[in-house]
Amino acid sequence: MITLYDMERSGNCYKARLLFGLLGVEYKKHTVDLSKKEQMEPWFLAINPLHHVPVLDDAGTIIRDSNAVLVYLAAKYDAARTWYPASPAGMAEVQQWLAYANNEILNTLAAVRAIGLGLRPGNLAEAQEKASGVLSVLEASLTGRNWLVTSHSTIADVACYPYASLVSMGGMTHDAYPAITAWFKRIEALKGYVPLPARPVAKA
Question: What is the pLDDT of residue 198?
Answer without folding.
Answer: 59
